[in-house]
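Researcher: Please predict.
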Amino acid sequence: MNLQSKYFFFILILVIVLIVFMIQSENGIVIKTKIFSIADSFQNRQLVQSESYQSESDQSTDPIRYTSKPDYSTPNKSVYPTVFCLIKTHPNNIKSNKSLNTYRVWGQKCDNYRFVTLLLEHLRPKNQSETVEVFNNFYMIQPKGLTKESHGNLTLKLYYSMIYVYQKLPSYDWYYIVDDDAYVNVANLKNFLKDKSSNESITFGYNFKVIVKGGYHSGGPGYVLSNAAFTTITKAMVEKISNCPNTGIDDVDINACVRKYNGKLGKSIDEKGRERFLVLSLMGHFLGQYPNWLHSYAENPLKKGFDCCADSIIAVHYMSPRDVFRLDLAIEIHKNALNLYQKFHILQKPVTFKNIIKNYVLLEDIEYDRNKYKELIGD
């Protein structure tokens, strides 16, 4: 049995053992072991009262209390930059627990976060002329003037949310705007940003070369704004909301506003030209199932197979709750397997997309009791 076969036999045994510890409920899938850092701390949080959130300078009078309240009063400065995640969702995703799954798997790994949505009816304030915030399983804000969810008002939904965050939570290095149907690896995002200056007005994401002069990023897998870029355009919005364009297409408008105030479009591909932010689903990129329009929109050449995606993948769009969970698990299995090989056999190997996608397909085969690994992976 060669080394590769031993590795995948080991992975298979590890996965089977893990499945024993898996439970599935209507709230999503949760791992009981802590080895994969899919945190279960939400089980220890109990909401006592939901009201509007106080500013960072007034944490002592915060009316929201729980048995184990997360402390977001001060960004956790370390060798890695701090990231605030602004996650777009809507009431249907909250009702179906799709948003809760997003929070459990990766949302809570941000240094701070807020879901942006029209609140569920029982949480909705009578006065909707101001932005309000509640905690119900996770933090949510309903931006000023949002009375219904529609594609036509996405830009203002984000603008007023950004203004609220700027006024209440202004001290983070980077601000990441992303859909709740994306998978995000926060550790990889922070590692990518580690050597970049948040004092430079710049953004990173999946790059499009059309529509906006200077380019823009796809909103699905998200785009990250430096503190300088976020502060510059939000100050302009506070002065007059019309200082930034409003076509209703939020990713276009926010990026256009950054470019208007001389913010740069950063590059996020790796040294081999592989994407870190994926505009389509994981399997869409891997199989090369690209729609025709993407060929003219994408700044970088479209790739497929093992060369489609970076080893340090950051975000993937169009992922179901199961997909989100499965990809996080596939990455963590790979990391932990390599750590064990390093510990017991002094075998140093890097995390690779090739092995991530192999684990992902293998997990899907186990999950759905099928055998597509050989068909999709081919070795």
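Model: Residues 19-69 have pLDDT under 50 and may be disordered.
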